[in-house]
Amino acid sequence: MQLATRALSGHVVRFRPPHAINQWACAAPRFDSDTYSRQRSLHSSSRPSTRTAVPPSVARLNTSTRWSVALATDSVTPLAEQAPVGTTESQAERKKRSRRKRQWRRLGLTVAIVLSVGFVAYETVRPFRLFTLAIGRCTLVGIAVGHCIVDYKLLFRRTFTDKEERHQAYEACHKKCAERILEVLKTNGGIYIKLGQHLSSVQLIPTAWSSTMVPLQDQCNPTPVRDIEQLFLTDLGVTLQDQFTDFDPDPIGVASLAQVHVGTDKRSGKRVAIKLMHPDLEDFAYVDMKTTTFMLRVVKSFFPDFEFTWLGEEMEENLPLEMDFRHEAANARRATRDFQDLKTTSLVIPEVLWSERRVMVMEYIQGGRVDDLKYLHDHNIDRNRVSQELSRIFSQMLYINGFFHGDPHGGNLLIRPAQPHSRSPYNFEIVLLDHGLYFDVDRALRTNYARLWLSLIARPSAKTEADRRKYAKLVGNIDDDLYPIFESAITGRASLGKAGGGSMMDLANQTPEEAHRIRVAVVEEGLLTSIFDLLRRVPRRLLMVLKLNDLTRSLDTALKPTHPPYRIWLIVAEFCTRAVWQDDQRQLSEERVSTGLSLSLIRRSVSSWFGFQLWHRGLLFAETLADLRASWVLYRDWITGLTVGGFEEARRRRSGLHTLD
């Protein structure tokens, strides 16, 4: 029997009942619930209850019109047993949640596998580890530089009501950014330490930056001794124990590129210093150099007036040379030859026994830091004489030899009592270390720079003023607009408003506090742009000369001498006079060879000789007066100390230790 009902759409659909029943027919499409209930009971008692899943094609029953749903299948689930609508939706949601759980499980499993593989690769595959570390180092630099760019952008957009507020805001921003960069440099180490050391010696940048970077001159992390032993074995094929006895695993000095240990050479029996490069330095050197150059260019793109890209370029040029100790050994030998003909000098350069690319063995010399006032006190060394000898050593290198040490900070200079057969005119010797960075200066730059110095020492006149501008143009391509800044960079004098209007001697009584205040004003009153313009114009070699000037002035300040500030200028002028005299003699000799002897040539030779003698004797007289003044100050300090605390306090004050209290 086939039963027909009307679907919701009004169409007639035929179906078979789920089991045989008495034939009956529905005369109307209306559904009789009582009859259906009896049929359902009969069906439930005659066979086990089995539910058939409702196909998706089932239409919803409209209860208001009480239409039934017809199925075109062989069996049908009674209407009362059809699943509620909410149940069907819950199943869909459960399926969706189940699918999401499976997706998350797959994602978690994938992440776990990637991390596990990455960890294993990091620990076992060296290129992968270096790549990962390089990304981290670059990211640290990028984040720090980005924060600094934002800080300075916000600073430059601010308006200030008075100069004091402006000064405090600038000082706070400089300090904050400098400390942020300092932490990154210390974390990354390697050549970033070298970069910080360069910044600490540049006095044309804000003081907050240069002073913040000073700790990098001595704060370098040592490499574990097991890594040092592996480097030695890799490079030389023998162990440290095969080559040395009494090898001290604790380094006596740690620098940005290498560290130094002490041991006894088995062949010669000499006590030697073994300099070994940090093994991981080469792993990141190339990336670090490129990162530094790139970041400096990024900063310049945001601040077009900023000009320190030369620093990155200089590092790319010179750092590969510094990372080859054979080059350093050659520099040390050349510097030794440059001073070997001098009858008197306090300079001592350790003898290099042998060197390889990453290992160098040299004479071991004990001593204290050259600016350690306590060491000078204990060995009865006059700090005034130490300051003067430092000025003579580096003036000899620059103006006479044309080959100068590029990084003479306090960590690279030792002092010790004079040894037997010493050439030192005093009771001490100055030991110069770390010869990896030297610069050549051609004759033209060297002599023109010397003539510029002499014009700065001379009393003002129309000729003196013309000479200053002339030689500033020759050595630095400096026009009149930047001349005051250039003069300040050379001499360290801060009185820019009087530049060219007087002599360097006019600043003899200027206190460091006054110079600092004027320097801060220079940086903040719009001249910072001019400073960066100067750095962009001058030749790169001259920038290294200016850096040498800054470092030697810093050493003089650290020693706290009692002589007047112009005392070291007089020493510089003495060597400039010799350089100019030698250049004049060279020119006259070449002219005599080419044109022969003439009255004009004789007259010029005599004039040159008298000029040299006038300068030489005048400088000696001025130096004598300055030394007498320094001696009087020392005597006064000694008397004051004797009055206050007896002989021991008198010695402390004479050595300058009271300035550290």
UniProtKB/TrEMBL annotation:
Domain ABC1 atypical kinase-like: from-to ranges: 216-461
Domain of life: Eukaryota
Compositionally biased region (Polar residues): 38-52
SUPFAM superfamilies on file: Protein kinase-like (PK-like)
UniProt keyword terms in alphabetical order: Membrane, Transmembrane, Transmembrane helix
Chain spans, region Disordered: 37-57, 80-99
GO CC, any one term: mitochondrial inner membrane
Transmembrane segments: 104-122
Stated family: Belongs to the protein kinase superfamily. ADCK protein kinase family.
Protein name, as recorded: ABC1 atypical kinase-like domain-containing protein
Taxonomic source organism: Mixia osmundae (strain CBS 9802 / IAM 14324 / JCM 22182 / KY 12970)
